[in-house]
Amino acid sequence: MLLLLFWGTKLLLSDYFSKYVVRNLFGLLQENVYFCSMKRIVLLFFAAIMPAIAAMAQPYRFSARLSTYNIRHGEGLDGRIDHERIGRILRKAHAEVAAIQEVDSMTRRNGGVYDLAEIGRAAGMHATFAAAIDFQGGKYGVGILSREVPLSVRRIALPGREEPRMLLVAEFKDYVVACTHLSLHEEDRLSSIGILVAEACRWHKPFFVMGDMNDEPGSAFYARMAEHFLFVNDTTEMTFPAGGPTVCIDHIALFRAPGVALSRYRTWVGDDEASDHCPLHGRVKVVVGNGRFF
């Protein structure tokens, strides 16, 4: 009987919910091991699931200010490397979390400077880096800048035949942000989608992926990504090249998870020329729950 109750719960509820139930149920059973009549088992079962049912019925809301910026190692259209300038752009946008691509760390061309730390100091943000390749005596990759220190961080390799690619994932209190700079080759980008989806499914929080995806609306990659992710930014607003953008290849997207919905959002493209890409900023309001367990 207990086995049937367990498997029925597992089929009807999410993995997270069933783990929660089973952990509580067996904890209660261990405490009552000498008194496990069938009646008591059923009572204990409902005692275990009631906290989770109550959590299901309580949706919560949060807002976030997000940015993504391919910084070209800090070099602007004027040929100057100016990390403070990029920091000011993020501060002006009131970014809480920013996904940063084409980041140098201690390379010769940047004079042995750690780009992300310099930008973070100017913006008042914490720096988290993921190296993709060794380059000019240092590293080159992607980063996340955040007002709060991430609760946890993951670094995951992505396909890239012209150069290795990286997915940097940072967990925060209400949501998870992933930063990436996808391959120039369509086959690699398409292969990356499964990895992005698998990573999003690991988390029981809203999952955003942001970055330079090297692709635009109308492509096979974009269509397949849209099956799993909601593109938050207005894709009629172009992001590249800076100074006269003609394509939208920088994106902010939210994983399509049950019980997660955007209640309100606004995005805008900056006209700054601190890189060869335009910065993309957004403010989102998310509802989690809606009577279903995320």
Structure summary:
The protein has 294 residues and is of the alpha+beta class. The chain is built from 7 helices and 12 strands. 31% of the residues lie in helices and 32% in strands.
DSSP strand count: 12
Q: With helices defined by DSSP (H or I, 4 residues minimum), what is the helix count?
A: 7
What is the element string, with H for helices and E for strands?
HHHEHEHEEEEEHEHEEEE
Low-confidence stretches: 1-26
> What is the helix content?
25-40%
* Proportion of strand residues: 25-35%
Structure description:
There is one protein chain. Helix 2 packs antiparallel against helix 3 (38-56) and helix 6 packs parallel to helix 7 (220-228). The radius of gyration is 22 Å and the shape is globular. It starts with a helix and ends in a 6-residue tail after the last strand. It is α+β, with helices and mostly antiparallel strands and 294 residues long. Helices cover 31% and strands 32% of the residues. The longest helix is centred in the N-terminal third of the chain and has 19 residues, at 38-56. A 6-stranded mixed beta sheet has the order 3-4-2-1-12-11. Strands 5-6-7-8-10-9 form a 6-stranded mixed beta sheet. The protein is built from 7 helices and 12 strands.
